[in-house]
Amino acid sequence: MPPSGDSDPAARFRFFDRVTELLNELCRRSPLLIVLDDVHRADEMSLRLLAFVTDQIWPAPLGLIVAYRDEESTGGVWQTVLPGISASRRTVTLTLTGLDVGDVAEWLRRHRICAREKMPAELRERSGGNPLFLTEMVRLISLGRGDQIPPSVLELMGSRVAVLPTPTRAALEMAAVLGRDFGYPALAAALHRSPFTIVQDLEPAVEAGVLVRDAARQGGYRFSHVLIREAVM
Predict the structure, then answer these.
(1) Does pLDDT of 170 surpass 90?
(2) What region does 211 belong to: left with phi over 0, alpha with psi -120 to 50, or beta?
(3) Entry pTM
(4) How many CA atoms lie within 13 A of 42 on its CB side?
């Protein structure tokens, strides 16, 4: 584990340097590939260690695959560490989007699931094309419980909302009643609060990727995922 943020900077540097040297030693034996998943959950020092290694390890034969969720990678050290790593000419950034309707139809076919004509589109809309969500939804459909939110999905969506400030959660609960798409004036009226206050309350949800601003309509917002709205309700 890297030293805590309160440690002596010199000690932290020595630790980072030791890790880099260890990786160099391993790479001298044979090329190395390291896969880091869920990096959006990493603490600050771990992210700074990643940035240090990325900068110092070249030209060792080391490949790093770093996976993280955009919507959970905001604020703090991400604003300085991630752009620096991404800007390196040795870094390739790939954005993974959800499956489209055709992909969902093919997924159902490959799993030998007899689907109604509109089922691929309905599953795509509800799952957002997320393979994990899709798998869980189809499992419930096979059990005759297709109208339910899979517990694992509900837990994940709920955890993203649970960390938001109390006023934000209260605003989201009312917004979910208004629909997946809503405007802050209507939400302010429903909560008997000023539009300015509502916009402030919604900002943490936008930063967390729970909501997105609707560029097509002034003052409009949209739940980034239909299942987030259902989980809030």
Answers:
(1) yes
(2) beta
(3) 0.60
(4) 24
